[in-house]
């Protein structure tokens, strides 16, 4: 898809096929064996595909992702909090996500989808407000990984398959320093 014509759709509508999405994960909970696994054979871990507390609180729970072409890795890193520990970048193809079907096949599960979801951030008063920083328009979510869809074993199977599909990149300190250097100074 031509990035110039790419526009986010209304909440809950499908992100077009042919695109890739990014998810940022934290390296702070990984031991050296897990880090070696990520940097060696590039297989990721199932925990990166667990819904966060914020994901679960949404009116429609979705696993937070960023559509490449509307959001760069650098913008996503800033939007998820600018934390050095969030250096694991997982890239997945939308079409491949939609092809996944859980095992066991019963009870029926509708399969995963990738849907547009407006980005939001804390408002400082316990609520949330629309996110308006660069790249926010690329926010979306992987739908149907929540407890309302399928069994626990089906959801675990789907998260395992997402981990298998992910292309993993680890941002090094030099890359993070470059991103930080481009940020405007904090408002005091």
The proportion of residues in beta strands is: 15-25%
Strand order of the largest sheet: 4-7-2-1-3-8
- Form type: globular
User: H/E element string?
Assistant: EHHEHEHEEEEHEH
Question: How many DSSP H or I helices?
Answer: 6
Total beta-strand segments: 8
How many discrete structural domains? 1
Main pleated sheet: 6 strands, antiparallel
Q: Low-confidence spans: pLDDT under 50, at least 5 residues?
A: none
Estimated radius of gyration: 17 Å
Termini separation comes to: 41 Å
Indicate the mean pLDDT. 88
Structural class: alpha+beta
Task: Summarize the amount of helix as a percent range.
Answer: 25-40%
Can you describe this structure?
The chain has six helices and eight strands. It is α+β, with helices and mostly antiparallel strands and about 190 residues long. A six-stranded antiparallel beta sheet has the order 4-7-2-1-3-8, with helices on both faces. The protein has a two-stranded antiparallel ribbon with strand order 5-6.
Keywords summarizing the entry:
single chain, 188 residues, alpha+beta, 6-stranded antiparallel β-sheet, two-stranded antiparallel ribbon, 20% strand, globular
């Amino acid at each position: 898809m031509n990035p110039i014509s790419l526009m986010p759709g209304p909440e809950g509508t499908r992100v077009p096929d042919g695109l890739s999405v990014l998810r940022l994960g934290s390296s702070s909970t990984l031991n050296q064996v897990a880090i070696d696994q990520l940097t060696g054979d590039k297989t990721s871990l199932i925990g990166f595909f667990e819904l966060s507390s914020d994901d679960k609180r949404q009116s429609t729970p979705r696993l937070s992702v960023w559509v490449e072409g509307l959001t760069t890795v650098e913008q996503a890193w800033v939007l998820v909090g600018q934390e050095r520990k969030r250096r694991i970048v997982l890239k997945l193809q939308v079409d491949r996500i939609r092809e996944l079907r859980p095992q066991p096949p019963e009870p029926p599960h509708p399969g995963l989808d990738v849907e547009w979801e407006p980005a939001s951030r804390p408002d400082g008063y316990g609520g949330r407000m629309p996110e308006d920083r660069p790249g926010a328009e690329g926010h979306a979510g992987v739908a149907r990984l929540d407890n309302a869809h399928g069994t626990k074993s089906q959801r675990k199977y789907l998260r395992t398959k997402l981990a298998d599909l992910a292309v993993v990149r680890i941002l090094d300190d030099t890359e993070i320093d470059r991103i930080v250097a481009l940020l405007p100074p904090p408002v005091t």
